[in-house]
Each structure stands twice: as C-alpha cells, then as structure tokens.
C-alpha cells in the first residue's frame, strides 16, 4: 500500500536520507529499525507530509502522496505531547476534527475508545492532571481515532507499564486484524519479533537490510546448535561433522555450542553423540532480531 | 480552510474561557472608571471644601487689611499679639498664623507662617504670591498710581483656538482633548500590540515545548497553524477591546448619573467663575467663560468636535494591521526557541521599533503633528499604528490615512510571509541554540 521510492533528504549540513526505498504491504505490521540518528524520523516525517523529500517519491495506495491522504494516516510521534491546559475530551475531539472527522462522528468514536480503554471518567480532566502513562493512552486514542488505513507509531511502548503496554499491544493487533497497516519505529527488538511481519533497517541514512522477519531470520541461520548432556565424552572438533564453538561443564552436565559443517544435519550430530552420552537438550541457535541488528550495524561501522 | 477555522476556534475559546481573561476584562474598566471617578471626586471636593483660615498678625501698618481672601484661603486680621495667637492656635478655628513684622517695603524680612501642621507647597506659594502682590500694590500706590488705574492694568487672556478647514470654514479646535485622545489611543495601541503579540509567541512556544507540534503538523500545514493562532488571538484582543469600550461607557454613564448630580457640576463651574471674577473684575474674556460654563464644559465641547466614531474605526483597523505585522514576527521568534528564557535576544530587535514609535509619537508627534517626522512615523508600518493614532485627532488628510493603511497591509503581508518561512522550519527544530543567521538560513530553505 505504501511505496517509498529513492527518497533523498538533505538538511543544511548532513544527508538524512540517502536514496532510501522500501515498500509496506497492506494489512501488515512493518518495523522501521535503526540506531539513533539513522534517519528513521526523517523518513516518517516525509511519509506524514511534515516535510517534503528533496527527490524521490512516496506512493500511497497507488497515488502519489498528497494532502488528501492526511486523513488516512495516523501518527504517534516519539516526542509526544498534548495541550496541557485543555480538557482531554475536547482535545481528542479537536485532533479528530483536524483529521477531517465530523463532530458527531468524532464524539461517537471518542466515547467508544474511552470506554474501551477505561478512560470514561477522564473527559473533563486536564492533561496536566494525568500521569504520563495516562497521557500516552490519550495520545494513542488520538492517533487511531479517525480509523486511518496506515498507522505510524514511533516507540509506542515507551512510558507504559507492562499492563498498559499489553493493553496497547492487543489493541494494535486487533486493529491490524481489522485491516489497518502499521509502521513501527522502535529499538525494542523483542516487540519487533512479537509484532512485525517485515522490517527495514536504516543505518547512516541508508537502508541496509529489509524483508520479512521470517526470511531474514532464515538467512541468518548458520547451523549452530546447543547440546546438553551428561556422561564422559570429550568432543573433538572436526570429526568431519562439526566444530565446537564453546564448552561449559556445570554440575556434571556439559553444554556444547557446535556449528555443523557444510551439508551436515542435526541427525548426523545426534548419531555421533547418542552412543556415548545421555542427551538432555538439543536446540538450534536462531539469531534474534537483536543479534541481527547489532551484527549489521557493527558490520557497517 | 475548514481546518484554519477549527484552529481559530480553539485558540479563541481556550483564551476567552480563561479565568484571567474574564477577570481582566471585567475589572479593568471598573478600575479605570473608579480611578477617574476618584480623580473627579477629589478635584470637586478639593475645589469646594479645602479652606484654610489664616490669622494675620500684622505689625506692619502699610499691609493692614491688604490681603484679599480667595475661595480656598481666607485672611482674617486679628488684633492680638503673636504670642497670644500661638498659644490658642488650633482651638480658635484658625489653621495658620501669618506673622508680618514691621519691615520696610523695600526689604521685607522676618515673615513667618505658623501652623499646627506644615503648610503644603501650593499653600506656601499662594501665601507668598499674595504677600508679594500686596507689597507691590502698596509700592505702586506710594509712587502715586490710583486704585482705578491699577484695576485697569489687570487683564485675563484666553486664546480661542480655531482651525481653518479645507473648505475655508472655521472649526473649533481642541488642543487639550486631541492630545488626550491621541495619546490614550497611542498608549492603548502599544499595549495591545505588545500584550497580544507576546501571547502569540507564548502560544507557539507552548506548542513546541509540549511537543504537540508534530502531531499538529501531520494534520495541518504550518502556515494554517500559524495564521489560525494569530487570527484567534486577534479576535481575543478585539473582544477584550470592545468589551472594555462597552463596559467603560456603561459604567461611566451610570456613575455620572448616580454619584455626580448635575448641581455639583454646575456649582463647581460657577464657583470657579466666581473665583476668577473676584480676582479680576474686568476683562471681556471672563464674560465668555461665564457663557461657556467653565472648564468642564470646555473639555466636553472640544470632545464633541472630535469624530470619535472615525477614531474608533481607524483604531480597530490599525490595531488589526499593527498586530498582524508584529505578531507574525513574534510567531517566528517563538518557533525558533525552545523556551521563553531564550527569547530575549530576538525580542529586542522587534521591540525596538515599536518602543521607538511609541516614545517618538508621544513626544515629537504630539508637539508637531504635521511635521516631517510625524508624517514618516505614521507611514512606516513599524511605527504607523501608534503614530497615526496620535496624529489622527489633530486631523490627517485622507490621502495620508489611506496611504498609511495600504503600506501597513503591504507590511503585514510581508512579515507574515517572512515569518511563515522561518516558522515552518523552526517549530521542528529542537535542542539547538538558534541565531539570527540561522533564522535567515531557514528562510531560504525549500519546503
């Protein structure tokens, strides 16, 4: 639904985005990753039409991005805020109307969301009387209220306690089920693994990796396994099947990290071990998004 | 367009509903009316009731019975010694003792004014004047001039200001009232532009520091947000101004009816005239003043010569124009900083022309409302809102008024344009100390 094509954005002295392209599929949750200052926010600001790119284009549902798309995008910035002296209900209504909703429609939707997230009694409270977590909830509601097709969340869970983070996560999944597409910008890799269908990694203004989470993980598998056993066995690196990367002995149990040779399988590893030891555990070492992220960023440095 | 209306509505309502706005709007006219009420009350009271009784102990034969009592000071010659009077002072109904020792008229010395309380400055100079006058008259008489010749010497001059208008007719001019109205309008203009311009700046900074700006800008264009805020706050200013006018008008009407009944006013006028007549019995100017009904009537009459409706309408125009001109600059400043403490260095260059216009308008323009400086001050948009208001009551040719208005409109379109280009970059910049040079750079940025 969203295609970013060859975007370049130059600020006075530094290049914020250098020929970045990516595409987000309809109904998916897309993770936009990258270290601080990589250019994520610059890209989001272009998609939300806060700034315009120097060159390149953004295609939204087959059309070049224009003002009519504003009402179809919801944006929760990382640095978020509300008018401190304004009442919550009025404030959310105001933001909804600015996105083009009618007064009646907005009232209905605000009531629905306030009820759903147990904020019913907040309507006449002022923002300055709410805790930070409560303010975050209000902002989340303001972001999704106008039923946007594309919802962009920049660090959506920062500032939430685990209970509220879980509530918001479930709301995201539910909205996603109803057809909303999400772009997630975050550093928290565990939420990326949990939620995202695909990702793009931006580093030093360039996109260095993208694709579906499953594919990327598949690509980063390198035939490494954890084996835990008890019994007397001194593994010999090689033997034509595996290399030992690491060995720990603890209370009579041995834990090995091994990497299989090219073309060998876990079955062949087991066939070597089974006759000599009692096996407790065999795990494939699957790289986490966190590992991939660190690995990629370090490589490029 | 729909969005800018929403913004105007929010900016307007959020300010008008504030307690501080309601209190300020209601209280100011009451305070001002109360202040003027007190002023008028005391001047009437002062004119009618302050009466100092002075016992004159004169050892000087030539000055006996020569001091004439006036409305506020009555001289009573007593045949008692100074020591006697001193001991009974305060109990015998006298406020002061004036002691005139036996001195030669050429070298008066040893005169004393004694009282239970220190004589005020005006009281003191009045007595000095009276004594000097009495001595002068005695000296003139001594050199052989008759009393009736002395009376003829006295004359009271009253200049009648007239202005010849374009069609050659005489118009009553009203220097006093024009100066008051002009200065008041100028001061009001200065205050309004400053107060509401700063409000725009605060509003922009608030949006920036509360970080709502990014959410807003993902919904509306920076220009819409800036103009919405500026117009919303302008409407707040107009609301306050109109309420002030209506409230002051009704309060003063009610107050005049309730507290100052007409007799009092007439009495003041009449007694003022009597006082004048007592001092100078001849002179045609006095007669004129009697028919005019005294100084209060004079101010009322000269007010009637001013076209207050025109002044009010022009004020509203120049308020809107001057406010737009300056508030756009304030919006640009607000967008460039992270907090109000950083605004000082930028406020200075914006405040300078406004303050200069204010100071010059109240000095140079008031003294010479048709001069070159006055003309240029009322043309340049930086100073014209104030200078034109000060000039207006003196009469400004229509072409000058029109030109000044056109220049102001061109001026604010210019500042709004410049400001919006700085604003759209500034509101998204955080954590950097901004310099004027940087702001100029933002101005040249592409979108």
UniProtKB/TrEMBL annotation, chain A:
<dbReference type="Pfam" id="PF13732">
    <property type="entry name" value="DrrA1-3_C"/>
</dbReference>
<protein>
    <submittedName>
        <fullName>ABC-2 type transport system ATP-binding protein</fullName>
    </submittedName>
</protein>
<dbReference type="InterPro" id="IPR050763">
    <property type="entry name" value="ABC_transporter_ATP-binding"/>
</dbReference>
<dbReference type="GO" id="GO:0016887">
    <property type="term" value="F:ATP hydrolysis activity"/>
</dbReference>
<feature type="domain" description="ABC transporter">
    <location>
        <begin position="2"/>
        <end position="229"/>
    </location>
</feature>
<dbReference type="Pfam" id="PF00005">
    <property type="entry name" value="ABC_tran"/>
</dbReference>
<keyword id="KW-0813">Transport</keyword>
<dbReference type="InterPro" id="IPR025302">
    <property type="entry name" value="DrrA1/2-like_C"/>
</dbReference>
<dbReference type="GO" id="GO:0005524">
    <property type="term" value="F:ATP binding"/>
</dbReference>
<dbReference type="InterPro" id="IPR017871">
    <property type="entry name" value="ABC_transporter-like_CS"/>
</dbReference>
<dbReference type="InterPro" id="IPR003439">
    <property type="entry name" value="ABC_transporter-like_ATP-bd"/>
</dbReference>
<keyword id="KW-0067">ATP-binding</keyword>
<keyword id="KW-0547">Nucleotide-binding</keyword>
<dbReference type="InterPro" id="IPR003593">
    <property type="entry name" value="AAA+_ATPase"/>
</dbReference>
<comment type="similarity">
    <text>Belongs to the ABC transporter superfamily.</text>
</comment>
<keyword id="KW-0536">Nodulation</keyword>
<dbReference type="InterPro" id="IPR027417">
    <property type="entry name" value="P-loop_NTPase"/>
</dbReference>
UniProtKB/TrEMBL annotation, chain B:
<keyword id="KW-0812">Transmembrane</keyword>
<dbReference type="GO" id="GO:0005886">
    <property type="term" value="C:plasma membrane"/>
</dbReference>
<keyword id="KW-1133">Transmembrane helix</keyword>
<feature type="domain" description="ABC-2 type transporter transmembrane">
    <location>
        <begin position="19"/>
        <end position="420"/>
    </location>
</feature>
<feature type="transmembrane region" description="Helical">
    <location>
        <begin position="400"/>
        <end position="423"/>
    </location>
</feature>
<dbReference type="InterPro" id="IPR051449">
    <property type="entry name" value="ABC-2_transporter_component"/>
</dbReference>
<feature type="transmembrane region" description="Helical">
    <location>
        <begin position="241"/>
        <end position="260"/>
    </location>
</feature>
<keyword id="KW-1003">Cell membrane</keyword>
<dbReference type="InterPro" id="IPR013525">
    <property type="entry name" value="ABC2_TM"/>
</dbReference>
<feature type="transmembrane region" description="Helical">
    <location>
        <begin position="311"/>
        <end position="333"/>
    </location>
</feature>
<protein>
    <submittedName>
        <fullName>ABC-2 type transport system permease protein</fullName>
    </submittedName>
</protein>
<feature type="transmembrane region" description="Helical">
    <location>
        <begin position="373"/>
        <end position="394"/>
    </location>
</feature>
<feature type="transmembrane region" description="Helical">
    <location>
        <begin position="21"/>
        <end position="44"/>
    </location>
</feature>
<keyword id="KW-0472">Membrane</keyword>
<dbReference type="GO" id="GO:0140359">
    <property type="term" value="F:ABC-type transporter activity"/>
</dbReference>
<feature type="transmembrane region" description="Helical">
    <location>
        <begin position="345"/>
        <end position="366"/>
    </location>
</feature>
<feature type="transmembrane region" description="Helical">
    <location>
        <begin position="180"/>
        <end position="200"/>
    </location>
</feature>
<dbReference type="Pfam" id="PF12698">
    <property type="entry name" value="ABC2_membrane_3"/>
</dbReference>
């Amino acid at each position: 639904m969203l295609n970013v094509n060859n975007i370049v954005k130059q600020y006075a002295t530094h290049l914020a985005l250098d020929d970045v392209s990516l595409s987000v599929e309809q109904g998916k949750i897309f993770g936009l990753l990258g270290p601080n200052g990589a250019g994520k926010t610059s890209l989001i600001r272009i998609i939300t039409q806060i700034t315009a790119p120097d060159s390149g284009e953004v295609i939204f549902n087959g059309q070049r991005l224009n003002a009519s798309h504003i009402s179809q995008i919801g944006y929760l910035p990382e640095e978020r805020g509300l008018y401190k002296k304004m009442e919550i209900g009025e404030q959310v209504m105001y933001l909804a109307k600015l996105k083009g909703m009618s007064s009646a429609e907005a009232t209905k939707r605000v009531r629905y969301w306030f009820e759903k997230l147990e904020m019913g009694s907040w309507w006449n409270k002022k923002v300055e009387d709410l805790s930070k977590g409560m303010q975050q909830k209000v902002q989340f509601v303001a972001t999704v209220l106008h039923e946007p097709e594309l919802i962009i969340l920049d660090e959506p869970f920062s500032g939430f306690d685990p209970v509220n983070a879980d509530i918001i996560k479930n709301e995201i999944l539910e909205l996603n089920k109803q057809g909303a597409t999400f772009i997630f910008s975050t550093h928290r890799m565990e939420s990326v693994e949990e939620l995202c269908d695909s990702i793009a990694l931006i580093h030093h203004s360039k996109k260095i990796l993208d694709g579906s989470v499953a594919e990327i993980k598949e690509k980063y598998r390198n035939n490494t396994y954890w084996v835990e056993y008890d019994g007397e066995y001194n593994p010999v690196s090689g033997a034509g099947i595996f290399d030992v990367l690491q060995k720990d002995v603890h209370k009579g149990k041995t834990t090995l990290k091994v990497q299989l040779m090219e073309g060998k399988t876990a079955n062949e590893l087991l066939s070597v071990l089974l006759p000599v030891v009692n096996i407790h555990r065999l795990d494939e070492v699957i790289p986490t998004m966190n590992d991939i992220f660190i690995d990629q960023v370090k490589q490029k440095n | 367009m729909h969005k800018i209306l929403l913004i105007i509505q929010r900016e307007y309502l959020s300010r008008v509903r504030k307690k501080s706005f309601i209190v300020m709007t209601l209280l100011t006219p009451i305070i001002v009316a109360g202040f003027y009420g007190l002023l008028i009350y005391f001047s009437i009271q002062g004119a009618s009731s302050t009466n100092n009784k002075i016992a004159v102990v004169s050892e000087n034969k030539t000055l006996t019975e020569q001091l004439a009592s006036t409305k506020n000071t009555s001289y009573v010659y007593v045949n008692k010694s100074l020591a006697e009077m001193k001991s009974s002072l305060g109990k015998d109904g006298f406020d002061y003792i004036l002691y005139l020792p036996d001195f030669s008229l050429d070298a008066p010395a040893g005169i004393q004014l004694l009282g239970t309380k220190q004589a005020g400055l005006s009281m003191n100079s009045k007595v000095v004047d009276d004594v000097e006058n009495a001595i002068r008259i005695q000296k003139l008489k001594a050199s052989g001039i008759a009393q009736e010749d002395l009376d003829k010497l006295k004359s009271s001059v009253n200049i009648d200001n007239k202005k010849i208008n374009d069609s050659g007719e005489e118009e009553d001019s009203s220097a006093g009232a024009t100066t008051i109205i002009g200065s008041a309008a100028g001061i009001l203009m200065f205050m309004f532009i400053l107060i509401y311009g700063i409000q725009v700046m605060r509003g922009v900074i608030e949006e920036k520091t509360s970080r709502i700006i990014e959410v807003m800008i993902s919904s509306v264009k920076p220009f819409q947000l800036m103009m919405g805020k500026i117009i919303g706050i302008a409407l707040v200013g107009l609301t306050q101004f109109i309420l002030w006018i209506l409230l002051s008008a009704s309060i003063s009407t009610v107050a005049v009816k309730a507290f100052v009944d007409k007799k009092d006013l007439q009495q003041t006028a009449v007694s003022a005239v009597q006082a004048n007549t007592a001092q100078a019995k001849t002179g045609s100017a006095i007669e004129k003043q009697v028919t005019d009904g005294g100084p209060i009537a004079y101010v009322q009459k000269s007010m009637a010569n001013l076209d207050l409706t025109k002044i009010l309408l022009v004020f509203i125009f120049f308020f809107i124009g001057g406010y737009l001109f300056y508030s756009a600059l304030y919006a640009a400043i607000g967008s460039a900083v992270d907090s109000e403490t950083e605004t000082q260095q930028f406020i200075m260059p914006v405040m300078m022309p406004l303050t200069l216009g204010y100071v010059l308008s109240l000095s140079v323009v008031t003294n010479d409302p048709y001069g070159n400086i006055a003309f240029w001050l009322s043309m340049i948009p930086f100073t014209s809102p104030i200078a034109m208001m000060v000039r207006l009551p003196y009469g400004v040719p229509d072409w000058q008024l029109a030109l000044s208005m056109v220049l102001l409109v061109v001026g604010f379109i210019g500042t709004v344009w410049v400001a919006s280009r700085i604003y759209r970059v500034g509101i998204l910049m955080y954590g950097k100390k901004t310099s004027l040079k940087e702001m100029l750079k933002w101005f040249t940025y592409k979108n």
